[in-house]
Design a protein that fits this description.
The complex is a heterotrimer of chains A (374), B (97) and C (462). Chain A contains nine helices and 17 strands. Chain A has 374 residues and is α+β, with helices and mostly antiparallel strands. The model of chain A has no long low-confidence stretch (mean pLDDT 95). With 97 residues, chain B is mainly beta. In chain B, strands 2, 3, 4, 5, 6, 7 and 8 form a seven-stranded mixed beta sheet that branches. In chain B, a hairpin with a 2-residue loop joins strand 2 and strand 3. Chain C is of the alpha/beta class and 462 residues long. Chain C folds into three domains: 188 residues, FAD/NAD(P)-binding domain (3-Layer(bba) Sandwich); 133 residues, FAD/NAD(P)-binding domain; 68 residues, Arc Repressor Mutant, subunit A (Orthogonal Bundle), CATH 1.10.10. The chains are: A alpha+beta (374), B mainly beta (97), C alpha/beta (462). At the A-C interface, helix 5, strand 12, helix 7 and strand 15 of A face helix 15, strand 23, helix 18 and helix 19 of C. Strand 1 of chain B pairs antiparallel with strand 9 of chain C, so a sheet runs across the interface.
């Protein structure tokens, strides 16, 4: 069984894949999205829903500019989705915090911020380091142990699960073919088109965009590209719905528009998503209560863990193949933050047939081969 | 909706949203509320619709009330005590109580 | 709970017949044993309130209920530590139990675990099922047994299954009035049930069942119905069955019970779909051992078979634990128990087919709520399934069904069946939620108070 006639096959039905597929459909492409099944390890289901700017780009200055570009495009992006589907993904950009629970944590944060903003070529924006009293003016419920934190006015968040649903609804309305249980086993280029062998049959398309998260590591070499990944596990604790009290997102605690409070965040070397590491959940809970003592009696209703999509150095990879023209790879950790870019900037590039080097050259995987200085 | 087979023995006093009701030692809070004829005990955090206990065995979570200042308690699992204060839970839980 | 130790030979989770029988046998054989139950007493659902019921007239609840008194007494005298008001929120493959007592979370380790969390009622998603005034039949039975309460207004019962008839009889004996019973078991069920009638006729349920039906039908009109709806504005006002309206203050719903699988699933126990009983059940060996070494599942949680069978299963699981941990200890011969169990399980197939709930009442449509906690409609679930959502975990991400405090206990089967129906596949293919602890809510403060290893702290404080 062969399905053919597609302009672009997007491999991966997570946020990167479906945002790209939507953008391609808007450009008039005939798109098929190939996804795995219900039990697949899906990073998109496990995210903190932040549209986050601060602290990004230490080690690769252009990443900060790329992030801010997406953050600035997010409002327009969510408006477009709302017009198309009637669904509101509750994007908000009130600014965000990273709170420190000790002087040492605050100093480490301040140092990282300093170094980030001191990099040559870094885009100009502000991240403020605030003490307890200044934070308290904006977050009245912080506990006495909060020593201070970093604040950036460009940080925000979104209802990411609703974003997922909205994009799927939009894809469906635009006639994009979404095929679950179509795990890609092999990709070959023959007769000017790409032939993808999947567990649901063969699919053929003029171009292919690999947006399969950590699986890009396996798929990219099939089209003459590389995507060195270093997946890691993270675990989140979620509470019952609570009356709104937290009006700014932060890196480890945020209150969703539904009232639930999400608490993170851990970085574990395992790549087994199953089970709950109690001691880690306990640490996350403890730090959340130290930040906001009024959370002590609130009930934990569920926990989950996910395997983060993480490239070798943590920065995105965008590449187009030289040996297999028409093949592209997209990998990033911040699928939510960069959603607007993928939908409105990268997808049009793929539709046109070439990545815009001026914008994405720094993110090529070729950077992994630059010999170390000295 | 429910009545006691034996009214004798309902000698404890609880406060529900400020009003006193009688309960029997051995009642769960949910049973005491049902016996007192209280029609609904919370409104949902999603849409604000009224709910009352549904399963009385701790699996439906429709009997969530605030007991002695602590919210989201499953009333069907908490035994009554003299002087207990019960409040219906309107919508989302209040953090801090 | 000051006398709770941090480690036991055997931890039994659930104080119903399976748990009580297991704890009793194991403790008497010399295993250090703890039993946890989240309610204020023991007995589970079937023997709810057995040590404290105000309904002292034994004829009301019937002798099958009172048989539970011996089980409870035996367990209490066995030397096992019986911890009530103890909510188990976590169980993992390392056999660590997370339990919360009086608002304080504790971790207990055991060398063997018997999960005896029993069953819950199958969801009964009809229009208006979330209205105050609509409850499960089991709820009314619990209110009667544990607190001596009976319905006082106009009460209608609806559904199918032995428990419906048993409750009706108990309510009538207690002096309550039942306006009508809406029988929703499809007539066609007889065709499949007939093949199993000979076995059922030989089982103890045969004559008991017939007598019960006669008792109830003598006093209550029984009306066949293929559709049931609850109507009212913020409160039940009337029940509509096949278009016929009946004023009502209380509607009691019941269409069978299904295993309560959340704890076992969160512990990693493998489950499979049972097409005859239309539910997921754990995959077990002949000693009720599961796919996780050291964890056994006994009672109705292992598959629906009733209260007496539950006790026998609990005993068999306990014997296996005793043989593993204390091979020289005196334990009863399992042969006689297996035979008793076999007798109890006879007739089950007949009941399962006769009372098999109709598709229309398992797979709702339109505005009827599939998920009570998050207020997600059947129509929304069906739509997402049609446009490509293949399984319940994706569905949860799309619509939030299953994300509420009940953790999908009251919507899981509905969601799985709806997806299977829309995508023209089977519930076995579709699967169930991926569950994790905590399976019952605990506070952030309690969670924060648990022991934290250095490596775990470092994974968060970076």
């Amino acid at each position: 069984m062969v399905a053919s006639g597609y302009d672009v096959a997007v491999v991966g039905g997570g946020l990167v894949g479906i945002a790209t597929a939507w953008g391609l459909a808007r450009e008039g492409c005939r798109v098929v999205v190939l996804d795995e099944g219900d039990r697949a390890v899906r990073a998109s289901r496990g995210n903190f829903a932040l549209v986050w700017v601060q602290s990004k780009g230490l080690g690769l200055a252009p990443y900060a500019g790329w992030t801010i570009r997406s953050s600035n495009a997010w409002r327009g992006f969510s408006d477009l989705l709302k017009q198309e589907t009637g669904l509101d993904v509750s994007f908000q950009r009130p600014g965000g915090f990273h709170l420190a629970l000790s002087e040492k944590e605050l100093e480490a944060r301040a140092d990282a911020v300093r170094r980030l903003h001191a990099q040559p070529g870094i885009v100009d924006y502000k991240t403020e380091i605030l003490g307890h009293a200044e934070v308290k003016k904006m977050l009245p419920d912080i506990g006495p142990e909060v020593v201070g934190g970093s604040y950036c006015a460009l940080d925000g968040h979104v209802n990411s699960l609703r974003l997922f649903r909205t994009l799927h609804t939009a894809l469906n309305a635009r006639g994009v073919s979404y095929r679950p249980s179509h795990r890609v086993e092999n990709i070959a280029k023959e007769g000017g088109e790409f032939r993808l062998s999947t567990t649901g049959g063969e699919v053929r398309a003029g171009r292919v965009a690999l947006a399969a998260g950590n699986a890009n590591m396996r798929l990219a070499p099939m089209v003459g590209l590389e995507a060195p990944m270093k997946p890691e596990r993270g675990q989140i604790v979620v509470t019952e719905r609570v009356q709104p009290f937290l009006h700014y997102p932060m890196s480890a605690v945020r209150q969703t528009d539904e009232g639930t409070v999400m608490i993170g965040d851990s970085k574990e070397e395992s790549i087994d998503p199953a089970g709950l590491r109690l001691g880690i959940a306990a640490t996350e809970a403890e730090r959340a209560v130290r930040r906001f003592p009024l959370l002590a009696n609130v009930n934990v209703v569920r926990t989950w863990s996910a395997i983060r999509v993480m490239t070798k150095d943590g920065f995105p990879i965008y590449d187009e193949s030289e040996t297999h023209p028409g093949a592209f790879v997209l990998c990033c950790h911040s699928g939510v933050t960069l959603c607007a870019n993928h939908a409105l900037t990268v997808a049009p590039m793929i539709a046109r047939g070439a990545l815009d080097k001026a914008l994405v050259a720094p993110f090529s995987a070729r950077r992994f081969h630059v010999p170390a200085a000295g | 909706m429910f009545r006691r087979l034996d009214e004798k023995g309902a000698t404890l006093l609880l406060k529900v949203d400020g009003q006193e009701i009688r309960a029997r030692d051995g009642d769960t809070v949910a049973a005491a509320l049902l016996a007192a004829g209280i029609k609904h005990i919370r409104t949902t955090p999603v849409s604000g619709k009224p709910r009352a206990p549904y399963c009385l065995m701790g699996v439906c979570f429709d009997c969530l009330v605030t007991i002695d200042g602590v919210g989201s308690r499953q009333a069907c699992l908490v035994p009554v005590r003299e002087g207990m204060s019960v409040e219906t839970q309107q919508g989302k839980r209040e953090a801090g109580r | 709970m000051t006398d709770l130790a941090s480690a036991y030979d055997l931890a039994v989770i659930g104080g119903g017949p399976a748990g009580l029988a297991a704890a009793s046998l194991a403790a008497r054989a010399g295993l250090s044993t703890v039993l946890f139950d989240e309610t204020p007493g023991v007995g589970g659902q079937i023997y709810r309130g057995i040590t404290s019921t105000p309904v002292t007239n034994r004829a009301v609840l019937g002798e099958d209920y009172w048989a539970g008194a011996a089980l409870a007494a035996e367990a209490t005298a066995s030397g096992a530590l019986i911890a009530t008001g103890a909510t188990v929120w976590s169980l993992d493959p390392s056999l660590q139990v997370g339990v919360s007592i009086a608002g304080r979370a504790r971790l207990i380790h055991a060398r063997r675990i018997i999960v005896a969390t029993g069953s819950l009622e199958r969801p009964f998603p009809i229009p208006g099922w979330t209205l105050p005034g609509v409850m499960t039949a089991g709820a009314a039975q619990t209110a009667l047994k544990a607190q001596g309460l009976v319905p006082s207004g106009r009460t209608v019962m609806a559904g199918s299954g032995p428990l419906l008839w048993l409750l009706a009889a108990q309510l009538l004996r207690a002096g309550a009035k039942v306006e009508a019973i809406l029988d929703t078991a499809p007539r066609l069920n007889w065709l499949r049930a007939l093949a199993h009638l000979p076995d059922f006729a030989l089982s103890p349920y045969w004559s008991k069942g017939l007598a019960l039906l006669r008792e109830v039908k003598a006093k209550v009109p029984v009306i066949r119905a293929s559709s049931v709806e609850a109507h009212g504005d913020g409160q039940l006002r009337e029940v509509v069955a096949d278009g016929r309206r009946q004023p009502a203050d209380l509607l009691l719903l019941h269409q069978g019970v299904v295993p309560n699988i959340n704890l076992a699933m969160a512990a990693g126990v493998e489950h499979r779909w049972n097409e005859r009983q239309l539910c997921f059940e754990p995959m077990l060996d002949q000693d009720f051992g599961s796919s996780v070494p050291g964890i056994a599942v006994a009672g109705d949680g292992a598959g629906i078979a009733g209260g007496t069978a539950a006790a026998e299963r609990g005993r068999l699981a306990a014997i296996a634990a005793v043989r593993a941990l204390k091979p020289d200890a005196a334990a009863p011969d399992p042969q006689a128990i297996r035979q008793a169990l076999q007798r109890e399980e006879m007739g089950r197939a007949f009941l399962d087919w006769l009372y098999r709930p109709p598709v229309a009442l398992r797979q709702p449509v339109g505005e009827t709520l599939a998920c009570r906690c998050e207020e997600v409609t059947a129509g929304q679930v069906r739509h997402m399934a049609r446009i490509g959502c293949e399984g319940p975990n994706q569905m949860k991400a799309f619509l939030r069904c299953g994300m509420g405090p009940c953790q999908g206990r009251l919507c899981g089967l509905t969601v799985t069946e709806l997806i299977a129906a829309e995508r023209e596949t089977s519930p076995a293919e579709v699967g169930y939620w991926r569950l994790r602890p905590p399976v019952k809510p605990i506070t952030l403060g309690e969670l924060a108070s648990l022991p934290i290893a250095e490596a775990e702290r470092k994974a968060v404080e970076r």
